[in-house]
């Protein structure tokens, strides 16, 4: 993906915003993917109360990706990085979400829109560490195609 398409970016952003707003309005839940997934995997009776909602949310994310792969696979492309590096990056993101008490969707989309100072700090930290990580990977492994 080398071309920027403002139309699809605006549409995607609007869909994320509407989805997060509907989840908040109808269920009182923040559309933070790490929190939704953690609650789905958490054992115990308290976790069962909204397990269906959480499972539907995660299933929708997975099915959306599968649908895109079936309809427009060229939009997904492939990674120029080794699988082990991608696994390490995913693990680092998972640890980061636990340390910061949320993920980019929970803090960046929902928290910022509610004016949460904690989310502002978390999102600024995500952006800074993401940029520094990309620079480090570029320096260590070379530019991607």
Write up what this structure looks like.
By secondary structure, the chain is mainly α. It has a domain at about 80-145. The protein is about 75% helix and about 0% strand. It has seven helices and no strands. Helix 2 crosses helix 4 (about 50-70) and helix 6 (about 105-115) runs antiparallel to helix 7 (about 115-140). The longest helix has 25 residues, at about 115-140. The protein is globular.
Which descriptors would you attach to this protein?
0% strand, mainly alpha, globular, 145 residues, 75% helix, single chain
> How far is the N terminus from the C terminus?
10 Å
Gyration radius (Cα, Å) is 17 Å
State the helicity in percent bands.
over 70%
Give helix and strand order, one letter per element, not per position.
Answer: HHHHHHH
Beta content comes to under 5%
Low-confidence stretches: none
User: How many distinct helices?
Assistant: 7
Q: How many strands in all?
A: 0
Summary?
This protein is mainly alpha-helical. It has 7 helices and no strands. It has a domain at 80-145.
Topology overview:
Layout: H1 6-27, H2 33-41, H3 45-48, H4 51-71, H5 83-100, H6 104-113, H7 117-141
Helix pairs in contact: 2-4, 6-7
């Amino acid at each position: 993906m080398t071309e920027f398409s403002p139309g699809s970016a605006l549409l995607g952003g609007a869909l994320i915003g509407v989805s997060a707003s509907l989840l908040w309005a109808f269920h009182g839940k923040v559309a933070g993917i790490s929190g939704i997934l953690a609650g789905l995997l958490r054992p115990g009776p308290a976790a069962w109360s909204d397990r269906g909602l959480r499972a539907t949310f995660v299933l929708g994310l997975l099915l959306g990706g599968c649908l895109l792969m079936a309809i427009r696979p060229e939009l997904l492309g492939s990674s120029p990085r080794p699988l082990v590096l991608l696994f390490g990056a995913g693990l680092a993101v998972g640890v980061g979400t636990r340390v910061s008490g949320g993920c980019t969707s929970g803090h960046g989309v929902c928290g910022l829109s509610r004016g949460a100072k904690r989310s502002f700090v978390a999102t600024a930290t995500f952006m800074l560490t993401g940029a520094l990580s990309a620079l480090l990977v570029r320096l260590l492994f070379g530019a991607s195609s």
